[in-house]
Amino acid sequence: MTSFAFHLDYTDPTSRARLGRFETPHGVVETPIFMPVGTRGTVKGIWPDELREMGAKMILANTYHLALRPGESVVKDLGGLHAFMNWQGPILTDSGGYQVFSLAELRQMDRDRVVFKSHVDGSMFDLTPARAVQIQEDLGADVIMCLDECPPHDAPAEKMQAAVDRTTRWAALCRDAQKRPDQALFGILQGGTDQAMRERSAEGLLPLDFPGYAIGGLSVGEAPADMYSTLDFTVPLLPEHKPRYLMGVGRPIDIIEAVLRGVDMFDCVMPTRNARNATAFTSHGLVKMRNLRYQRDTRPLDANCNCPTCQQFSRGYLRHLFQVEEMLGAQALTVHNLAYYQQVMRDLRAAIKSNSAQEFRLDHLARMTADP
To answer: What is the value of pTM for the model shown?
Structure first.
């Protein structure tokens, strides 16, 4: 993969937190990084220019959803995802593997494939490892993911092992199906919170020598403490000089905890979904905008934030927008939440550089107990 390189620049001596640079055909991203989620080819409620201005460098889109609408051939004919979305930075596409978990009632799976009943029109959508790669090659993302099975965290031991082994088998098929040299194909470790299963997954995937590895199957219902302990024994299994991606995580504190354990890349719908539901992340905790206490509140959403929302609008006005169901409310909170996540990542990178990542974590926890 000559178009890609990962440079490990620094590791905090007080933790496993690390600084890196991930080179892709559409630019270099500094890690650790948070990727806003644009499932259907858009980060909901926000323009590409706004993402760039807040410091987002890489975004995520979804294979399953884009294959259903508008179809990968349409995206390809319109110039690929970068032209389609007017986003010239790096893009990562998920394989559809998470939908194996989230749409379990709409799919059937066997050794070779997963067949979905489309949530759009009820038609059958057949996804094999080779098909998942072909769709992602047509979409044209920089980083593409192997098709995997994401089991529930409390799946019985025999089903967890079957998912691990199926994920390994499908990863080899994905690697064999890949044709484009300008896309980095990442393998995905599964295994829930079981150490033996995570080790089994790593033993199967590492010989395939992917340019990067993801940790799947977390943030799917397990307690945060269980997620952290799983990362404690899973991250050391991964190659040191390749990017490590924790899929679908999550709250800022979860990201910080994972970074201190050596993870480099993150994505989650939480900042955008919470924004649409009138909840803001701030430097002093969650602010639920529909609360009556904010009706006459003249303060900005977050006095420590320089985003357009915090510079222009009061909490009282933002609450009003949600009370009368004006779309600007969701848009304004989306801008703020994503800007807040990017600021957390910038501050976290600075803390790693100054050997103070542990202090950063403690300060974040202390501030989250304050009255927002």
So the answer is: 0.96
